[in-house]
Protein 1
Amino acid sequence: MKVKILLVEDDTNLGFIISDSLKSNGYEVTLKSDGAEGFKAFNENDFHMCIFDVMMPKKDGFTLAKDVRKMDNNIPILFLTAKSNDQDKVEGFKSGGDDYLTKPFNVEELQLRVAALLRRVDIQPEAKEKDVYDIAGYQFDTINYELKHPEFEKILTKKEAQILKILCKFANQVVAREVVLNAVWGQDDYFVGRSLDVFITKLRKYLKQDERIQITNVHGIGFKLEVSE
């Protein structure tokens, strides 16, 4: 299985150059042009590494890295930036970055840094995220959006499936509202917040066949999918 890299770079030409270079080394690359789309892509797919430009529209690279770290503490993150001062590098590491490459850079150096980061975390491409979750008496197929129970079966919408996948990934842990909103909608304003509440209500209805399952509101923070034995 190929190592999958999420590349988020708002300079279209540079993005294609980096993407082609990485693909020539055998990596599978998903290219996005802004931070909001990058975070949505991160939550819709399984990646082994992230490469983020710092200065981007909608969501800058540092903010994007912070959001990613709320979902995954281990995935390597490499920053690309035109700024070279120490304060920016400090900010990059504080936001969850593992390495920092200043523009302009040569492609060979980028490839070497990518390889080094992957070695550092002893990347195992075959160790991907789960495609199927067992939730008490339910089975949730994240690929086909199928939620099954002996007394209930439902094909979820894409957004329903994305929300439930995040809750399953962090079962019995609190997931912040803004994490879900940014992951699914790419923004966290009032109106999409109301939409999220509607989707949560629907998911509670779908999961009511098993009393061991509860989606609870954690006031002022977010939600928790509670699954008891």
Protein 2
Amino acid sequence: MSNPLFRSQLKSKKSRARLGEIHTSHGTIKTPAFVPVGTKGTIKTLLPSLIPEIGIQVAFVNTYHLVIHPGVDVISKSGGIHNFSQLNIPLMSDSGGFQVFSLAGKNKSQTQNPKSKTNSKSQNINKENDSRGANIRGEEQPLVVKISEDGVKFRSTYDGQLIEFTPKKSMEFQRKIGADLNMAFDECTYYPTTHEYAEKAMDRTHEWLKRCIEWRLANSDQRLETTNTNSQSQVASCQYLYGIIQGGTYEDLRKKSAEFVVSQDVDGVAIGGISVGETKKEMRDQIKWVADYLPKDKPVHLLGVGQIDDIVDLVKYRIDTFDCVEPTRLARMGTIYKIANIKFQMSNQFSKNKGDLSKRDNVDITRTEFKNNLEPVDIDCNCYVCTHFTKAYLHHLFKQREILGYNLATYHNLWVMERLMERIRDEIGNDNI
């Protein structure tokens, strides 16, 4: 039986890369695709009306943040997150698992092996991980009160309210939010972690996936409750469930988790716990380990990965969608992507000397050298920003902390990401990837 969510259209002769389509109630996503993060129901600084102009196909919202504020009931009564936010494109929602475990991971890593000689080093790594994790999924870290086999209790960073996340609660929250593609509740392990704890977290993730599936089967006929008579979200709205592969940096656990998740009654598969502090080699290894297990008839999402070199490398392992906050986060810091990076990275995709291109060749528009530079923001780019404004103007906006500067930089960076994905789809179609 064919999957109503996903249709694979073409497989590369050179790798596992493929072209496909994800069909949702709010539109079709041509894959491979980049997924900008709209954590709190907004792609920060960007008007929803600009989304079609840039070519954004899909965005990611976060259950944890939306539960805290404004609360899922008001979103549900408005007709769901699409109507509430006017993000009229397919949306993914995180389960909340990443947030509720990211802070707890720091505490565990410091107490897990107090006699270890690498304890101080681990603490330093975890400080970096906390920052990187926040960049991937949002700013505020929860105040975890209790973690058990049933779920997690934590204090809201907004008003101190005690909130419980369980597989059932996560599914209920996501149903009320109304995103098209939902993630099963999982435990995202911290880095570095022991094999023992990674296995325990993986087993818990698997058990929670089964509970998420059970809840979905028991509530498959539910629809969004809405008091908004103008809402169209209640009509023909269908939500799909992704199971998440975990297992830390351990090959045996990653393969075991992949085999289990793919065997379950899920509509799509996500790979989690990647890019939480490990090296790029370790990250790529974790994808290679599970590549043979990834489904051919379901979409595959890679959570929290979105640098240009990573995307170009990892589409070769049957990854269909990538989410990451980095393009928008860096934009608000004044970091401007160069569209020439796409051509460079594509031409060097098989080079053994790959670097972190997204950080190496970007432009820091806040530098004094751009104060009087009247060249386009990116001379090689034909987006609205680059055909209307100069480096000097954008430099001026950032130095004066004008909100328009953040908007223009975000627009440009996401434009570059969309052109990257278009180029990747073309290269797959030509069997070059």
Protein 3
Amino acid sequence: MLKELFTANQSVWDFLRTCGRPVVLYGMGDGADKVLDAFEKMDIHAVAVMASDAFVRGQQFHGFTVQRLSDIERQYDDFVVALCFASQLPEVMDAIKAVARKHITVVPSVPVFGDVLFDDAFVSAHLSELEQAYALMADEQSRSVFAGVVAFYYTGKPELLDGITTDKDEAFSLLSLGGNEVYVDLGAYNGDTIDEFLHYSGGSYRKIVALEPNAKNFSKLQARCADMPRVALWELGAWKENTVLTFNNKAGRNSAVAAKGVQTRVVTVDSILCGLRPTYIKADVEGADFETLLGMKQALTYKPKLNFAAYHRFEDIYRLPLLIHRLNPGYQIYLRHHPYIPAWDTNLYGV
């Protein structure tokens, strides 16, 4: 099924290289840096950079003067917009869709972490694994999300996300969290996902174990949980073994393994739990999701409910479900995409 999807469509990279129209980048920052790096490898040339009107102040980005859409429209009669940033804010997503109604808009997807692109070479190398993971999906919605996300990665067409997007309430109905959960929060940030857990568990729990490797985030997490009983907080990252790795020490949710940064202790989930039987594990560990699963083989024998980010690396959409299935074939694996452009907040749910 997936093979036909790829053979019937053109990759976003081939489209941008051969469309014969000027290509305008929409957005600045890390995403645009990665897109321009990919453009150089793919022999694609941008002619301008634009941003939303409120962000345009005559600044420079990679030698381009950042312009408004109206400025670009005065220069070119027909052009392609290449979206280079991500957002889940409704007003920002509405603005992106408004641009797409006026001009051909594509998303040359680049990974959140790493530099592997979802291009023809990727499809050729991993089609079998993609097909195997697709076959593991537990319901029709999961299969639709899987096919829609990989089609989006390949073609860059943002409208493909419209029909596969659902809210968190629907996903958490699959998990059916109760008031007696032993919750393990991997990548707990400032405690916002503990708040999410409490919302869906009715405010009750048996135990919470939370890991957060970034010192600033960890301080906020401690403050958030200061008055909560039966909570164990660890200033650690999750990994496949107990060791020390270099983290980039970025603020917010982006603290992750990197070539340069701060030495950070990482541990296996199994070593932290010491035999404690988890009932629900959430992981949003910024590109270390696969390695985190390798470090929780014992925990998975108890078949806790799972909520894993599946979008940090393009490989995650197939390798995470395949690994979960290998470690415990008893799981039913679901895939959901929540409101976000591009296909961030695409998560695996296991029950």
